Amino acid sequence: MVKGQWKRIYLFKPLHFILCISPFFFFPFSSCKVYSFKDVSIPKEVKTIRISYIENKARYIDPQLSPQLTDKLKQKINNQTSLTQVLSDDADYDVSGYVSTYDVTTAGVSNQQAATNRLTVSVHIVFKNKLNDQKIGTPDFEDDVSRNFDFSASLTITDAEAQLTSTIVSNMTDEIFNRIFSNW
């Protein structure tokens, strides 16, 4: 052993020990364990799904929202599941719903004037499982999924919709999809 080499080895070992052990010590306390999203789980017996047009029954109607939301949900289910989409009433899963809320409120005030507005969008989902009697898959449910979308109060609702529609459609599609297929 060369003189001085022992010091490097001795100093390296505690550092090596700390680097090797610290991930095991800190991992249980990390934020990775706070939220747990499970993968899509569809029983093999479930083969078909019918997705009805999501109507807009809100007081204010964005004419682009319903067709885009319906199409995006169909695309997501087609791309992320092995289910076959059908138009008939005999589908294993049947999804329908409507936009129930599309309201703008003031979310922030500055100098006694509205600075931020909030668009709240809610979709009422009706999910029916034809295989429920066999206890296969997601049970029947009716539920509302809702999200808020903030925008500058200097924008008109039409301008805000032009900026937000793709985000609204994407987020609401994810919410609906997760409510149907994920166990979280």
Structural overview:
This protein has a single domain (about 50-180), classed as 2-Layer Sandwich (Double Stranded RNA Binding Domain). The protein has helices at about 5-25, 65-80, 155-180, and strands at about 50, 55, 85, 95-110, 115-130, 140-150. Strands 1, 2, 3, 4, 5 and 6 form a six-stranded mixed beta sheet that branches. Residues about 15-40 have low confidence and may be disordered. The chain is of the alpha/beta class.
List keywords for this structure.
184 residues, alpha/beta, Double Stranded RNA Binding Domain, 34% helix
In total, the number of domains comes to 1
Distance between the first and last residues' Cα: 59 Å
Gyration radius, in Å: 25 Å
Mean pLDDT: 83
**How many beta-strand segments?**
6
CATH superfamily: Lipoprotein like domain
Unreliable residue stretches: 17-38
Helix % is 25-40%
Q: Proportion of β residues?
A: 25-35%
Element pattern in H and E = HEEHEEEEH
Task: State the CATH class.
Answer: Alpha Beta
- CATH topology title: Double Stranded RNA Binding Domain
Put simply, the count of helices is 3
Characterize the largest beta sheet: strand count, sense, and whether it forms a barrel: 6 strands, mixed
Can you name the CATH architecture? 2-Layer Sandwich
Structural class, from secondary structure content?
alpha/beta
Write down the overall geometry.
Answer: elongated
Question: In summary, what is this structure?
Answer:
With 184 residues, this protein is of the alpha/beta class. It has helices at 5-26, 65-80, 157-181; strands at 48-51, 55-56, 84-85, 93-110, 113-129, 141-152. The protein is elongated.
